[in-house]
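PROTOCOL LOG
Step 1. Enter all chains and additional molecules of the complex.
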Amino acid sequence: MRGSNSRDVSVVGCGMTKFGRHDDKTLIDLMVESSLRALEDAGASEKNVDAVYAASMLAGELNNRVAIGSALVDQLALIPAAADRIENGPASGGSAIKNAYCGIACGMYDTVLVTGGEKMRHVPGETITDYIATMTNIEAEYVHGVTLPSLAGMLTRLYMERYGLTEEDLARVAVKNHLNGSKNPYAHIQQPIALEGIYGSPEAEVNNPMIADPIRMYHCCPVTDGAASVLLCATEKAKEFTDTPIRIAGIGQATDKMAVQDRKDPAVLEALRVSAAQAFKMSKTTPQDMSLAELHDAFTILEIVESEDAGFFKKGAGSKALRDGVTALEGRLPINPSGGLKARGHPVGATGVAQVVELTWQLRGEADKRQVKNAKRGFSCNLGGFANNILAFVLERS
Amino acid sequence: MKGRVTYRGEFPVSEDIESILGVDWDVPKKPYPAKTVLLPTGERMVIREAAREEAPKILQAITPLLTVSRDFYDIVAARQYAELLGWYRRRVRNEFCLVGIVDGKLAGIVNSRAYDQKTHISYHTIALKRGARVGAHLFAAKHEHSMETLGAEEILVTAESPIGFRRWIVEWGLQVKPGVQHELGGVKTWVITRDIYNKVKPRLVMGSRPVPEDLLKRSATFEIAPLDWVSKE
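Step 2. Run joint prediction.
Step 3. Record the structure below.
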């Protein structure tokens, strides 16, 4: 946890590529593009960057690239800035931000560029699913054919039995997030969908086919290419870059058993409970103080479970909040105004950074058609594994 | 009269040679009854049979895809272009084409042909409107036409793209038909038997009839929307 001598850290610049399919660009091209946008946003030059943390889960496996931190520094002409690659599964982006925060807070650096990126769409879906599944417990899960959709399917079934969650609830998350994504020019999917188109009509069986019972296609995020970047700076120096620094007020990180079957309660994301509590404690806030949240909805079930285990709603009440419109863009607590992983997309290594980019835009009041009114504080959580390594962030307007 | 020249559209044809080369339907033909399907977007797509006279406009819609290598669009588009051109210029026997129209815009195209009354041959499926399961509904519709309107007993199918393989061969649970080469060449030939069709129909063949009059009228013609997804996705 934060020491008494540590420095405050703020986001002073941010940028993203459009998320989607980028056949004509390499992973490094994407990461350079988002990095340049963040540097430009901050008005920073190469002299301002002390270190670069590059986050990617599968750069080596899918793009035949390692040492991407070094490549990024070189391409951005940031030499001799320090450079590292951070890999923590789909939480790589969140981990990179945490490590950048630590580097600045301890006084080692003043400014750190964090860029998360992934290029995945050129690889067949089956191969991607297999690579992603390697982050499960190899002996207890992977060798038996467990995939992330199958784990989400089992969690959903348990939630249905225990809390009365319905398939309609899962569809409603997708409808909400697609609508939000349609207002986000950076989103992979910018097409609204209708509830009856994916649930309850005869055509829904074709439109929304089963993936891992009871998880259907529209309950899953797409496979996405893209990159996102933030420039972090010691808050005491933030005014050198911007009049609207966004302070990282709280960070938490916690882990849980790799194998879901070994957890105390498989319907509880304990690592989220711990990491969110850490982030709220550090920021001296509560879930009720948040204006919005960016949650890791790789599957729509996760948005509902996370909204409860992060402390926004009591256990089992997340789906009611959804149905009541509480989590809609105009609701009391908008969740995933960006469209979330469901519609903005999920280039795995970029996601944790993209969530912080969205919070930054929202807190600056720059989110255009998806702007949350009077946004003062925002929460994000970035999941690694099937929720066995989770980072939580609280950001606020300085 | 020998040597007489007539015009088919703008093309001059010699009628005596054309009587040798030109083909049409030689098995009983019935029109496909139009239907609507609900898309994930909440829009209603009208699926109806295309008239031969509409072929030039359909070809115009396919043309931009001839150079899109992604997802094998170029191969599928080039082949479908040739098939529909052949249909229009009477060089492919017993061919039919169905179109999907959403809000007055062409959303997708499918075509097949009857080898004979019993055996039909599935040609190609192209979705111009992406991410809305247009292809899945159109693919089902053309087999509905073969099986239910035209009375086929089996439909030969092959796949050229991974998406096609997953959507058609795997999702429909098709069987390999040994010793038969699909006329598109390529890999194995799979078959939709009447049993398979009847089995998948409740799950995969959707649609409502009759089409409301206003919607049918609106879908009598179509516009070609720009393929913005080619650069957007």
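Step 4. Note key features.
The longest helix of chain A spans residues 348-364.
Residues 9-123+223-240 of chain A form a domain with the Peroxisomal Thiolase; Chain A, domain 1 fold (CATH 3.40.47.10).
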